[in-house]
Design a protein that fits this description.
metal-binding, binds copper (II) ion, Plastocyanin-like domain-containing protein, 31% strand, Immunoglobulin-like, 16 strands, seven-stranded mixed β-sheet
Amino acid sequence: MVLNPLDAICNKPRNDAICVSQLRNAKKVDKRILQERPDVKIFLPFRFLFYRPEQLFAPNTYNRFLAATGGDHVISLVDEISFVGPPSPPLSQLDDIPPEQFCNGDNRPPNCGQNCMCTHTIDIPLNAIVEVVLVDEVQSPNLSHPFHLHGYSFNVIGIGRSPDKNVKKINLKHALDLDRRGLLNRHFNLPPSKDTIAVPNNGYVIFRFRADNPGWWLFHCHFLFHIVIGMNLIIHVGTQEDLPPIPRNFPKCGNHLPPITSYHGHW
Ligand SMILES: [Cu+2]
């Protein structure tokens, strides 16, 4: 019996494998999690961006990248943004971070380019019921990205691939369409609690949590070499007023790297 089969067939019982979404929670699950509509719904497609050598070695560009097997030079995009860390910790030094450093899919910096780099942060009201739909646009065969959320355990309510046999590759647009038509798998029978979940290649994962733990929580693929190239974002729950006060004489820190900038129309 295999846990998390690579074929991601999770919508029916089988003898050879079981998906995490088919496990049952030993504990009670928050009733609000099990209601049809969450308060906040976030679609997060993720993929690689391939650099051409001339883009990497153009004068005065210092792009970070991963040299993949086969010789590709890639960075990672989550919702078309490659995460860069803030110069100081937002938890204790929010005022030291330029506000324009933060971004998300709805608030991209102007002229951000295809390799858009900023501190991808999604604001969530305290106590909201949040649903996250991860969509694998990397689609590297047999590669499942293990996404990990700090600060919470979440309930996994769906794992799968497109039921449409004519669709060879899933993407955000198709996932949104499936969702509108009620064709994404969602199970509400004691969905299991996890803090890491592997997204099947060419597939999706749906999970939910109640945002009752205020703070700035990193959400990221757990492959270290994907963290380095930006496969991360921050789930920011509540406001600074929801957090305990910063201790007196708490150490401070600033940027130890020159700022990383995106291309501005050099494509
Ligand atoms: Cu990854």
